[in-house]
Design a protein that fits this description.
The complex is a heterodimer. Chain A is α+β, with helices and mostly antiparallel strands. Chain A is 19% helix and 17% strand. The chains are: A alpha+beta, B alpha/beta. At the A-B interface, helix 3 of A face helix 15, helix 16 and helix 17 of B.
């Protein structure tokens, strides 16, 4: 009985949930799940002190608590505001919140290059998801976007600062996972950038690779996997190995095509957060399937673009043409292969190693 | 002649030095507080005085002190916020330059009341010569037994350190100031926890403005009950106003908060009117971040009453027709000034000073500056004015610290009151490069309909 009394009752979008004191509104919403969970670009539950910066998780507190029912005067960052007993929160039920969130997404995008077609993060990018959900299709920004030089920070990590949304997650990761942090924020305002002082390399520790996983956008990418393939062409597979580093959890997701491992990442949950951090040896050096014990295919939400082309258990719509045409088959007016040299019937994309290339489609000239 | 509490002895030759200051009744308040009052009595006296924070927000100082957490075995800190970087505000500079001992005496009494044995003065880096003045004064106070160990035989120890900032406006925000003082990047912290619970080095901390701390001295000298008799209503005591812009006599004035705005601008005792017979167009009465108001709303409130130099009267009508007392940076614009250009220079300032931590302020301030630059230089569109309004609306209230609000309010107020001038800039781009919009109707008497 005594333990039950300790729980706080919180109402988020008219759904009541009981949580421990000290829980943030965001985490309380995550216990409910679904659409009432505010999006978070900078908050990362595994990193202490993260959150409060991107302002996408703003919510309206319509009732402060049972003891003090006054509403909070401003929208609050749900990732850093702890719940009170009897608190009532409006997230998607408040037009004010949705309007503010739309504004934040617009602010995040005005200086973002929107180079998704050539960005390695595309398909698993938090900012992409956020702007699909809350952004608008056009922009009102008519000025030059800020740009930075691409930078190699260390042997394995590429920093593409132009894409960065300054969530500070990588700074916290380096602070809390590695023994010494060598990078941080330089300058201020919209000129501020993630950088290493004097372009120092980040290869001093075995855990720095995790900054790639925590990055919500494509600002930090894996140099061993850059431009090798698009994530939606790869099949994520759960695997593990006995890692000699005691801090490494050893449980990873392999991004494979055929037997080739293109990329090794930590396993991410539905909020884009890793389940356990992995070491750089596992991430960058174990690219052979023999190093790993494969557990099975990784479950990906069917709303994700990564599931495109994964046909496991999919029921395709039935062929209706025959029905409509009283059993007759349609007349073929033209065979595309008679005029086109690409998409050859004898070439099967899943048989090709790596991304498809023009040499994979031999032209008549090439055949001779 | 208005009564003075802070600057009444500022004219005395050599008041900067300990001997002269002491001879003119200096450190009497410190002696009174330390020898005959308990810390709680000092706090009670400050509460009674109704003193409100002079840094801009106007939060009651006594209340702020009483919020300070007092756990056992944890040091408490008092930090003096001398990072006065608001454009138009230069009152603290005057205090520190000419009356350093007044500040030190105020710090001594406040530290005693709060139980802080270490006190920091965080001064902006651009005031390059003032830390030397303060440090010399601190050394003098040390020599004469008003600082150091066992002050006046009461067993109370206090050390005051002066720390220079590195030139960031944001470090005037109390949590950013604390971060900077700790040697970190001056990013505001996310509140809660508030500094009164976890401030400097995770210990309870009170951050107060220079003028607030200096005002503690007359409060102890004359008593809180007597202090309330200065000023009007909840705006008790005197306030330093740093007047600048198109004025005959710009400068730092100590006013008792019972005079009208009109008297402050036009009387010979204060600013002495506007030079060259020009007329008043607009005014920012409290430093760059408070809303600008046109002349007609500055001199009378929307209700038709005379506007006074008090926290309440300046705020009368909210942001729709009022403004704020702020930090007392009184900027006056005459009929030759261009509000668009003026707003652009403020937007540029806030863009430059944004710390870049949270997205609305980092991206929005730069955007506003670019749009305003277009309008000012004859490349604007009518839709840009609505765009500006929308940007400021989405910055305001959605940021970690008040810098976002401070950047949004001037733009909002300029569009709210001077929209016709913005439209004229857009519609007459060539003419707008050659001449200013002029006074227009901003100084006309208010229409009756607006007085509802």
């Amino acid at each position: 009985m005594a333990e039950e009394k300790k729980l706080f009752k919180v109402k988020i979008d008219n759904i009541t949930v009981e949580v421990e004191p000290g829980t943030t509104i965001l985490n309380a919403a995550r216990t409910i799940g679904g659409e009432v969970v505010p999006p978070a670009m900078c908050y990362y539950s595994k990193l202490q002190g993260s959150g409060g910066k991107c302002r996408t998780c703003l919510v309206k507190v319509t009732k402060g608590s049972e003891a003090d029912p006054r509403p909070m005067p401003k929208l609050v960052a749900s990732c850093r505001t702890t719940v009170m007993d009897g608190m009532e929160v409006a997230n998607i039920t408040s037009p004010e919140v949705l309007d503010a969130r739309k504004g934040v997404v617009e602010f995040l995008l005005i200086n973002h290059p929107l180079d998704c077609p050539v960005c390695d993060q595309a398909g698993e990018c938090d900012l992409q998801d956020l702007s699909y959900e809350h952004g608008v299709s056009g922009t009102r920004y008519e000025f030059k976007r800020r740009t930075f030089e691409k930078e190699d920070i260390g042997e394995h990590i590429k920093l593409h600062m132009t894409r960065c949304i300054l969530c500070y997650r990588c700074v916290f990761t380096a602070d809390q996972l590695t023994n010494k942090r060598h990078h941080g924020i330089l300058k201020r305002g919209d000129a501020s950038e993630i950088s290493t002082y004097m372009r120092a390399s980040l290869d001093h520790t075995n855990f720095i690779g995790n900054v790639i996983d925590v990055c919500p956008v494509g600002a930090l990418t894996d140099r061993t996997a850059r431009f090798k393939n698009r994530v939606w062409f790869l099949k994520p597979v759960d695997a593990h190995r006995e890692c000699s580093d005691p801090k490494c959890c050893g449980k990873v997701a392999l991004w494979m095509r055929g037997d080739e491992i293109f990329r090794v990442t930590a396993r991410k949950d539905k909020y884009g957060e890793v389940e356990g951090f992995i070491c750089d040896t596992c991430r960058f050096e174990k690219k052979d399937i023999k190093d790993w014990i494969v557990e099975g295919p990784r479950k990906i939400s069917r709303h994700s673009v990564i599931t495109a082309g994964h046909y496991v258990g999919v029921h395709k719509p039935q062929e209706t043409v025959m029905k409509v045409m009283d059993g007759r088959s349609p007349r073929l007016l033209m065979d595309i292969h008679s005029v086109s040299e690409v998409n050859m019937p004898q070439v099967d994309l899943s048989q090709i190693e790596g991304p498809a290339h023009s040499t994979d489609f031999p032209t008549k000239k090439g055949d001779q | 002649m208005g009564r003075k509490l802070l600057l009444d002895k500022a004219h005395i030759e050599g008041i900067r030095y300990f001997d002269v200051y002491r001879k003119n009744g200096g450190y009497a308040a410190a002696e009174k507080a330390l020898k005959s009052m308990s810390p709680d009595q000092v706090t009670e006296e400050v509460k009674k005085s109704g003193l409100r924070g002079r840094g801009g927000a106007g939060f009651p100082t006594g209340l702020k002190w009483s919020f300070l957490a007092k756990p056992e075995g944890v040091p408490r800190y008092l930090v003096c916020n001398a990072d006065e970087s608001e454009p138009g505000t230069f009152k603290d500079r005057y205090l520190m330059e000419f009356l350093p001992h007044l500040l030190i005496e105020g710090l001594l009494i406040s530290s005693y009341a709060l139980g802080a044995n270490t006190t920091y003065i965080y001064i902006r880096g651009e005031y390059a010569w003032i830390p030397d003045i303060l440090e010399a004064a601190i050394a003098e106070a040390h020599k004469n037994g008003f600082l150091g160990k066992n002050i006046l035989g009461t067993g109370f120890d206090l050390e005051i350190y002066v720390q220079r900032g590195a030139g960031a406006y944001i470090c005037g925000e109390e949590t950013a100031l604390i971060e900077s003082l700790e040697g970190k990047r001056g990013n505001p912290r996310i509140k809660p926890p508030f500094p009164a619970v976890k401030g400097l080095y995770q210990c309870p901390t009170v951050v107060n403005n220079v003028e607030t701390l200096a005002a503690i001295v007359p409060i102890i000298n004359i008593g809180g009950d007597e202090y309330v008799k200065y000023g009007t209503g909840k705006s008790t005591g005197t306030k330093l106003i740093s007047a600048c812009g198109n004025l005959n006599k710009p400068g730092v004035y100590e006013i008792e908060m019972n005079i009208s705005v009109e008297e402050f601008i036009y009387s010979d005792e204060y600013c002495g009117g506007i030079p060259n017979g020009k007329r008043l167009k607009a005014c920012i009465p409290g430093g760059s971040s408070v809303p600008i108001v046109p002349a007609n709303l500055l001199l009378t409130t929307a209700k038709g009453e005379k506007r006074m130099m008090t926290y309440e009267s300046l705020n009368d009508g909210g942001f729709a027709t009022g403004t704020m007392m702020g930090s007392g940076g009184f900027i006056v614009l005459d009929e030759d000034q261009c509000v668009v250009r003026h707003t652009l220079s403020l937007a540029r300032f806030y863009h430059h000073e944004s710390c870049g931590q949270c997205s609305p302020c980092r991206e929005g301030t730069g955007w506003m500056e670019k749009v305003l630059k277009n309008i000012e230089h004859g490349k604007g569109k009518m839709s840009d004015i609505d765009l500006l309004w929308d940007i400021q609306r989405k910055i305001e209230g959605n940021t970690i610290c008040p810098l976002g609000d401070a950047a949004a309010w001037p733009v909002a107020a300029a569009i709210r009151h001077f929209r016709d001038e913005f439209e004229w800039h857009v519609l007459n781009p060539d003419e707008a490069q050659r001449r200013n919009f002029g006074l227009a109707h901003y100084a006309d008497p208010l229409p009756v309909a607006a007085a509802v």
